[in-house]
Design a protein that fits this description.
336 residues; 0% strand; globular
Length: 336
C-alpha cells in the first residue's frame, strides 16, 4: 500500500466534506441536517476499497433500518410490541454484524442503529415517522456522496483482499446481540415511561453504544476511549450552544447562516481530532457525540435539556463500556 496522505490533508478533506454535507442538508430544509455530517466521520477509511464498501453499506443499511423502523411505528400500536420489535431488531443487527466480523458487517450495524435513530425521536416527539425515515435516508446519501467526493482520489488502494466473513465465535455473537437487545429495550421503556429529552438521549446512547461495541470482535479500544470521547463531544456541543445564545445568532441576529458559520470552527477541530494519528481513536466518537448533543441545524431542545441529555449520554457510555469490559477475558480486561 502506498503512503497515506499527511494527516493535515486528511483533516482538510474531512472538514470540507462535513461542511458541504451539513450546509446542503441545511439549505434543503431537512429536519435533522446534522445527520448528514455523521457519515463523513465514519465512511472515511484508510483504504479505498473499504471507503467504497462502507459508502454502499451505509446507504443500504440505513434504508433497511429506516424501512423497518417505519413499519414498526405504523403497525405496532401496542407499546409492548413496539419495545419487543425494536429490541429484537437491534439485537439481531448487532449479532449479525459481529457474526460477519469484517468491513462487510457495516450494513447490519447501520440497520440496527438506524432503527434507533428513526423510532426513538418518533416516540419522544410528535414527529411524522415518514419524515424521520426519509430525512435519515436523504442525509445519509448527502453525507456519503460528500465524503466520497472529498476523499476517494486521495485514498490509496489496499493490496490484499479481505474475506467476506471472519469467525469470531457464534456464542459471542448471540451474547452481544442479547445484550444490545436488553439495553436498547430498557432505553425505549424509559423513554415511553418518562417522555423526557434526557430519556431519549439515554435510549439512543444505549442503542448506539451497545450496538457498536457488540459488533466489534475487539472492543478494547472503544472501551478505553468512549468515555473521554463522549465527554469531549458533549463539552464542545454545550460550548457551541452557549456561543450561539450569547452572540445572538438566532432569529434576532445573523440567523441560520450565522449558526452554520459558528459550527465551522468546531467542525474544523473535529476534523483534526479525527485525522491526527494520536487523537484518531477517540476523534470519531467525540464528533458523533458533538453532533447529537448540539443538534446543529435545528432549533434544539434548549441548553438545559441538551446538558441533561449530554450527561445521560456520558453516563450510558460509561455503563456500556464497563459492561463490555467485564465481558472481556480476564487478561484482556486488565490490558484495557
Amino acid at each position: 500500500m502506498t503512503d497515506q496522505p499527511p494527516w493535515r490533508g486528511r483533516a482538510l478533506q474531512l472538514f470540507l466534506a462535513v461542511a458541504a454535507a451539513l450546509g446542503l442538508a441545511w439549505m434543503l430544509g431537512l429536519s435533522h441536517p446534522f445527520w448528514a455530517a455523521m457519515p463523513v466521520w465514519v465512511v472515511s477509511q484508510p483504504a479505498r476499497q473499504d471507503l467504497v464498501i462502507r459508502a454502499v453499506l451505509r446507504v443500504l443499511g440505513t434504508m433497511a433500518g429506516a424501512g423497518l423502523g417505519l413499519l414498526m411505528l405504523t403497525h405496532l400500536d401496542n407499546p409492548v410490541l413496539l419495545v419487543a420489535g425494536f429490541a429484537l431488531g437491534v439485537g439481531v443487527g448487532t449479532a449479525a454484524a459481529f457474526w460477519i466480523g469484517t468491513v462487510y458487517s457495516y450494513g447490519a450495524l447501520m440497520a440496527a442503529i438506524t432503527l434507533g435513530v428513526v423510532i426513538l425521536p418518533a416516540v419522544a416527539t410528535p414527529n411524522d415517522p415518514w419524515v424521520l425515515a426519509v430525512d435519515r435516508v436523504w442525509c445519509t446519501l448527502i453525507g456519503v456522496v460528500a465524503v466520497t467526493l472529498a476523499t476517494f482520489a486521495f485514498t490509496p488502494r489496499r493490496d490484499e483482499k479481505l474475506p467476506l466473513r471472519l469467525n469470531h465465535g457464534g456464542p459471542r455473537a448471540l451474547r452481544n446481540g442479547a445484550l444490545a437487545m436488553l439495553l436498547s429495550g430498557a432505553g425505549l421503556v424509559a423513554l415511553l415511561s418518562t417522555g423526557q429529552f434526557w430519556a431519549m438521549s439515554a435510549a439512543l446512547s444505549l442503542t448506539v453504544f451497545s450496538t457498536l461495541m457488540g459488533a466489534m470482535p475487539n472492543p478494547r479500544p472503544l472501551i478505553r476511549y468512549l468515555p473521554p470521547a463522549t465527554a469531549i463531544g458533549i463539552a464542545a456541543a454545550i460550548a457551541y450552544r452557549l456561543a450561539g445564545d450569547h452572540l445572538g445568532l438566532g432569529d434576532a441576529g445573523l440567523g441560520e447562516l450565522g449558526l452554520y458559520l459558528l459550527a465551522l470552527p468546531f467542525i474544523a477541530c473535529g476534523a483534526v481530532l479525527r485525522a491526527h494519528p494520536q487523537s484518531a481513536p477517540f476523534g470519531l466518537d467525540s464528533n458523533m457525540c458533538f453532533l447529537l448533543t448540539a443538534e446543529i441545524g435545528t432549533a434544539g431542545h434548549g441548553l438545559g435539556a441538551e446538558l441533561q441529555g449530554g450527561l445521560a449520554m456520558l453516563a450510558c457510555g460509561v455503563l456500556v463500556a464497563q459492561i463490555h469490559r467485564r465481558l472481556l477475558p480476564k487478561e484482556a480486561a486488565t490490558a484495557t
